[in-house]
Amino acid sequence: MAFPINRRQTRQIRVGHVPIGGNAPIAVQSMTNTDTRDVVATTAQIHRLEESGCEVIRVAVPDQAAAESIAAIKQGIRIPLIADIHFDYRLAIAAARSGADGLRINPGNIGSREKIKAVVDIAKETGIPIRIGVNAGSLEKDIFARHGAATAEALVESALRHIDLMSELGFDQLKLAIKSTDVRQTVSAYRQLSEKTDFPMHIGITEAGGLYAGIVKSAMGIGMLLAEGIGDTLRVSLTRDPMEEVRVGYEILKALGIRRRGPEIISCPTCGRCQFDLFALAEAAEKALMTRTTPIKIAIMGCPVNGPGEAKAADIGIAGGRESGVLFKQGKVIRKIPQAELLDALLKEVDEFDD
User: Fold this and answer.
1) Among 64, 323, 341, 349, which has the highest number of CB atoms less than 10 A from its own CB?
2) The domain at 263-354 falls in which architecture?
3) Which CATH number is associated with domain 13-255?
4) Which residues pair with 138 in a beta bridge?
């Protein structure tokens, strides 16, 4: 049984039709890695992400053509779209006018107060929120000099400065992100900031790396924050297909008992008793079940003798042997099955469970 988590209460905003903060579910986000100017490719990737459970998508807006492409992309997708802006405030204005559901800016690299005001003005006009993204790699020079490094305290100071500026400009539809590649630094910064404001927070470890390092760093950082009740949206940043980011995001939420989407697969690490290719079977099952949304606990075990008993908590399970295996439910064997037919039998049971 998962331990209870007392979630930090934040004010609620909306990104398109998705509520963020307050009592709304913690939303899983990702970012496209296609050229935003390629409407067909970007829309197709967003469709795949929607099927994987992505609830908010962010796209890069490096130039005017990318900003203008948002209008066509929006026509073909269901989830809200956030425009990611760096350096040029005019791109934020163009993206908002093209129908973006939100803007992500780092005020530290947008420039003067007048430029930030222009972004705020268009957000007010179009009724969309702004995500303030403070990053250890782009702190304001004076803050960096004062702290001598991109410390957690420096990140918090930067975030508070931008919050104050937004308040002076009469804008409060904000979401905050305050990230670093360092897990402990990121966690410390979010902890400190969460004590000073009630704006909703987007959490993650920036530039976490490839599959293994990225998953470990993200699970540690995001998991620690979620366990402390901090976080209203999340993104797992991986140097991989963004569908993997969404998958890992839900696995983190699932591991903490916060949200359950789709199957939870438990499987044994194998030992000398295993007499068939459990790795291949487990991988095939994961791929076949990737887009399922019904919460169900599935066990894939390597020993037909001990497997069912070791996986009593599973709704449905299979355990293989050299030539045959068994199908079981809640630890009770239902029938014996030829080893080559185990996966098909499992998928059929899942289909019936979904119905």
Assistant:
1) 349
2) 2-Layer Sandwich (3.30)
3) 3.20.20.20
4) none
